[in-house]
Specification:
It is built from 22 helices and 35 strands. By secondary structure, the chain is of the alpha+beta class. Strand 11 and strand 12 form a beta hairpin. Keywords: Membrane, Transmembrane, Transmembrane helix.
Length: 762
């Protein structure tokens, strides 16, 4: 009986245990299927699903002709494997670790542009600044984070140099150095148009300045996504679900900038910067008929490939407001013409204007003036008094305010660049004094940016329309080249009539060509240039007082005057020089403006005005009509000159240019265009030398008198006509068998007798 009772108890106990275990399992299963179901599914999904973000390629920045200014390309990150500290690290590194940190640093430093000390420290430091142990591999600093293909090749050459037979050594001679492929932003022209382009940081996640920042969204593109199911080894399952969303590469941004014209600007800025070291400089080149910016350069500049060296983060052309001085008079002049208050032949008393309270307003020659002169002469001389009369007296505050506003002063131009400032334009309807109104007429008490001033003067150049400046021409698909967005010409408003603009242009040309013009040094032979100089005194930012001897000098001009292709604005802030400010235009501004304008016009194949050249040549001949060309050359002091390029010009222009250098031109033939010259271009000759100019119609050529000439001069002339020459003796010509003045065809044989004495026989 006891045995049976014990057996039943055991059975009951086992049943209870079984029920308990079953209950626990059932409860756990319920828990897993309900409470923890989501967590378990997520954990499983993480194990068998893989998700990868597909990065887009950043779009390129191109100039108007398709030249690449910025692009995304391959790069490589350099890392160093340190000596393993445990078995786990050794399993990863093996024998490929840096054995000689100092020696490795010495080899890498010149390639990476890093210091030996910084590289050695990186390869020997085992703990970070917080005392935590570093990984067994380390980055070698910023210079090693995105190296080029060329730098990679140099490192590979160190690792596997060639032996005496030209074969690569298989054993790694620079162990522990690894290269990982990545991408970076490249700027192939370095500092060219750096403030226009801006830069992308090395991490590739932040665009700074310029087009890179303004069009970051369009350039960046859109990320893609790839999701797939994998097995335990990480391989995709054959029937696993795949989700694929491709990345969309960024668009290419095509600028209005012309790389060649930009090069001309950069070269001119570099030359002026090295010689005069101003605080700032800006040169703008625009097409006034379209509003397109063809070049925009600043100093100081920077290299976007090494952006950490930036000292000036401002694009001065759009972000640096300054007092423009007399270039601002163009706006007052146009307004006065439009309102009918400018009469060129009307006279006024120059010198000082005393119709306002306080200190009189003086002309720039310390108030001496030029007596009673016409307003036309006043514009040429850049008379402040003339513009005070036109603006303050005749236009008055209301109209001045209207025209300044219409020309865009004190407003953003809305050019597609970041950080544009709108300058400073006082409220002329509530001035602090009458003087504040009066001085704005000639560019004092107002601050503009270079792009504002260029847009305003561009309105006069193009016939009276204020245009929105454009720096971007279009956006293109990076794969097909198809234009996805085009930036059209935008007229903000008409500011003056075409007739007014034409009259203003004619007057501004006299600033360059007139007898009293202050801009004669900006004259370009063969081109009608119109423009205006400007000088403004600088003020101490702390005291607000004028800084003696410190100026912002500028010149704005466009050409050809009646059908302008280009507008060039040059601004130089506080050049380091002790020269009188009146000399700064000739020595600083003119070389910049003239080189940029002339080279750019030639590059654009803008033909010079032949009629203008002929008129200039006629004037030159008229001035020297009292004496013969030979007499002029002989009376001038003898000096060495470099032969200019005369080929390609007209005979009148070529002759004029030769005479201006003290040379004696001899035209061969009856054509109108010079096809060949002797001596050749850039050859050094002495003033008084005869220059032979062969025309495109080589007929009725008269043989010159070679007496006293060298055999070389005879042979040079003979080569032009393919004459056969038989010389006798050596030295200088004493006689010739064909009389001087005889017409020759080139079939004759010329015999000359020479002797060491250059004087002719008695």
């Amino acid at each position: 009986m006891d045995f049976k009772r014990r057996a039943n108890a055991r059975i009951l106990l086992m049943g209870l245990c079984f029920l308990l275990v079953f209950g626990v399992l059932t409860g756990r299963l319920w828990w897993l299927q309900s409470v923890d179901a989501a967590w378990i599914m997520q954990k499983g999904s993480n194990q068998w699903e893989r998700e990868k973000v597909l990065q887009p390629k950043r779009g390129s920045i191109l100039d108007r002709n398709g030249q690449v200014l910025a692009y995304e390309g391959k790069a490589y990150t350099v890392t160093a494997n340190l000596q393993p500290r445990n078995e786990k690290e050794k399993s990863w590194v093996g024998d490929n670790y840096v054995r000689d940190p100092f020696g490795t640093a010495q080899k890498l430093a010149p390639i990476l542009g890093s210091s030996v000390d910084s590289l050695t420290k990186a390869m020997t430091q085992t703990y970070d600044a917080e005392g935590k142990p570093l990984k067994f591999y380390v980055n070698l600093g910023r210079e090693a984070s995105k190296i080029t293909e060329e730098q990679k090749a140099q490192i590979l050459a160190l690792q596997h140099p060639k032996d005496a037979y030209g074969k690569e050594v298989k054993e790694n001679q620079l162990p522990g150095i690894s290269l990982t492929e990545t991408t970076r932003r490249y700027y192939p022209n370095n500092s060219l148009a750096s403030h226009v382009l801006g830069y992308l940081n090395y991490e590739g996640n932040k665009a700074e300045m310029g087009i890179e920042k303004q069009f970051d969204e369009e350039l960046r593109g859109e990320s893609g996504e790839l999701q797939f199911m994998k097995d335990g080894a990480g391989f995709p399952l054959p029937d696993g679900q795949i989700t694929y969303s491709p990345a969309k590469d960024g668009q290419n941004v095509v600028l209005t900038i012309d790389q060649q014209i930009q090069e001309y600007v950069e070269q001119a800025l570099d030359k002026a910067n090295s010689e005069f070291k101003p605080q700032h400089m800006t040169v703008l080149v625009t097409d006034p008929k379209t509003g397109e910016v063809l070049a925009m350069g600043d100093r100081p500049d920077f290299n976007p490939n090494e952006y950490w060296g930036i000292t000036n983060y401002l694009n001065l052309a759009i972000s640096f407001p300054f007092e423009p001085g007399s270039t601002f008079k163009i706006i007052t002049l146009a307004a006065a013409i439009q309102e009918g208050v400018y009469h060129g032949e009307e006279k006024y008393a120059s010198g000082s204007y005393r119709k306002i309270k306080g200190k009189p307003i003086n002309d720039h020659n310390n108030g001496l003036g030029w007596g009673n002169i016409t307003f036309a002469e006043g514009v040429q001389r850049s008379s402040n008094v003339a513009f005070v009369i036109l603006g303050y007296e005749r236009l008055k505050q209301e109209l001045l305010t209207k025209y300044f506003h219409d020309f865009g002063i004190g407003q953003l131009t809305n050019i597609d660049l970041p950080s544009e400032t709108k300058g400073i334009m006082r409220d002329l309807s509530h001035p602090r004094s009458e003087r504040d109104v009066a001085v704005t007429t000639f560019g004092q008490g107002v601050a503009v940016t270079a792009i504002q001033q260029a847009a305003a003067v561009g309105a006069v150049a193009n016939g009276g329309e204020l245009l929105r400046p454009r720096i971007v021409k279009e956006l293109r698909d990076p794969h097909t080249g198809e234009v996805t967005e085009k930036f059209e010409r935008v007229v903000v408003r008409r500011v003056v009539s075409e007739q007014t603009a034409k009259q203003a242009r004619d007057i501004l040309e006299t600033v360059i060509t007139g007898d009293h013009g202050t801009g004669k040094i900006f004259d370009l032979k063969g081109y009608h240039v119109a423009g205006k100089t400007g000088t403004a005194q600088k003020y101490d930012e702390k005291t607000g007082k004028i800084m003696e001897g410190h100026y912002i000098v500028s010149f704005i001009g466009f050409a050809p005057k009646d059908n302008p292709r280009l507008l060039v604005y040059v601004v130089v802030d506080d050049p380091t020089t002790d020269m009188y400010y009146g000399e700064m235009g000739r020595k600083i501004l003119a070389p910049i403006f003239n080189s940029v304008m002339e080279q750019s016009l030639r590059y654009l194949q803008q033909q010079p005005d032949l009629k203008e050249l002929d008129q200039q040549a006629a004037k030159a001949v008229q001035k020297s009509s009292k004496t013969s060309s030979d007499a002029v050359a002989q009376s001038a002091p003898v000096q060495e000159v470099s032969m200019p390029q005369l080929s390609g010009s007209t005979t009148s222009v070529g002759s004029m240019m030769a005479k201006q250098l003290g040379l004696v031109p001899k035209v061969l033939g009856t054509g109108t265009k010079i096809v060949r010259q002797i001596p050749s271009e850039q050859e050094k000759v002495m003033s008084g030398t005869e220059v032979y100019l062969v025309t495109d119609r080589l007929t009725d050529v008269k043989l010159p008198d070679f007496t006293g000439k060298s055999l070389r001069e005879v042979m040079e002339f003979a080569s032009l006509l393919k004459l056969n020459v038989i010389p006798t003796g050596s030295g200088y010509v004493r006689s010739q068998n064909i009389a001087p003045g005889t017409a020759v065809t080139g079939k004759e044989t010329l015999s000359v007798t020479l002797s060491p004495d250059p004087s002719p026989p008695e």
